[in-house]
Amino acid sequence: MTQDPAGELVYVYAVAPAGPALDDAVARAGASGMAGGPVRTVAEGPLGALVCDVPAELFGEEALTAQLNDLDALEKLAREHHGTVAALSGAVTVLPLRLATLYADDAGVRRMLREGAEFLTARLARLAGTMEWGVKVYADLTAVDPADPVAPGPPGGPGAASAAPGTAGAGRAYLRQRLDRREALRRAYADAEILVGRVVERAGEFAVDRAWHRPQQGALAPTTGENIANLAFLVPYERAEAFRAAMDAFDGVRPGTRVEVTGPWAPYSFATAAPESVPEPAAESRTTDHPPVRDRPANGEARA
Amino acid sequence: MTDSLAGRMAPTAGSPYGQPPPGANLADILERVLDKGVVIAGDIRINLLDIELLTIKLRLLVASVDKAKEMGIDWWEHDPSLSHGARRRPSAREVERDTRDEVERDGRREVPAGESLAEENDRLRAELARLRSDTRSAADEAPAAEPHEKRSQARKEDRS
């Protein structure tokens, strides 16, 4: 494990309790690191860091900056980071580090483990025996009427269906369709928000903590419908199956809504903040056509 | 920690190394590895102390904000410490809205051929700014008794 300070740096993925369980998990995963070399551990006292060696020419400050600014390279880095952490996270408790934490050599990693021992140990203790699950709630009209652009709304106005093209009635029918469509959307959003309240409440029966991510949009999250709430829950191993089943049961219970479960994840969303201080997303500043979803499970219950 | 944990984690057990959990998309991964996870300062001796989320956000913001936004990674807009720069860049949606407002305000006014509404707006704003600065220097040269009134009058004309 000697380092060549000029040529190689040490990339740190995560911190875990040191010991045979960690060494065994690393050996079994047989993971290759960022640059093809093996993923290995650097231990200091009760803690071990999951690391790999990377060439300085790719991970030095300038090169790394270039990688982080190139979304394709960023994606590759992110997937490799995530993949390595994921490969270990089922077998040992891991505290995932944020992308691109680098040291000049193993001594630097040991120093970090030594100096941060108290903080790191406390975090690991909180995460022991748990995994993270993602739950996303969507308003999705395609779930209602994939073929017909006009969602079923209240019974159409008189003459709406019989109007012939080219007459004044055709224009009215078109406006009617637009209004019906808008009404269906409005109902889908309202239903999705009620569903969010129920999901949060039900998940609370299994989870020991939760976090709100920003609702997803854009090309990175290709899916139908609009993401109304993007939640993460910290769930003990022994409740994982029941949690998953309970969340899956919400999918499709209301027309125009969809619930998607991802996981298990390494507990990224619970690595930094204490349970009491998980920040709310700045939902109110988001520009959307519907009111922001707030952490008000009781609301959903009241309206349901 | 027992060995059977991996077995109980059915969705990951047996899945190829590096595979994201079922149902995950790239946004799921990025929002975790970039926006969550413990931030620990790297080794100061190689000057990577600042490679952490804040820096990544800023660099994305400077380097490729449009692409990042298009891909749905735009949390900096909601981060008070980062939003000053971000707010000055209107999003595509804002531009669209501004343009639409402009169209509604302007009614049926003719747009010169080959000039988009956005270009026209830029041109008009530039003209307005020039008029304002002209007015201001004129007011500065005017007798001390009336500049205030003159300026507010000028602004009214600008708006009409």
TrEMBL record, chain A:
It holds the Pfam family GvpL_GvpF. Transmembrane segments: none annotated. It is found in: Gas vesicle. Residues 272-304 are annotated as: Disordered. Residues 272-284 have a biased composition (Low complexity). Its main location: other. The keyword Endoplasmic reticulum does not apply. Residues 286-304 have a biased composition (Basic and acidic residues). Coiled coil: none annotated. The keyword Ion transport does not apply. It comes from the Bacteria. Keywords: Gas vesicle. Belongs to the gas vesicle GvpF/GvpL family. This is GvpL/GvpF family gas vesicle protein.
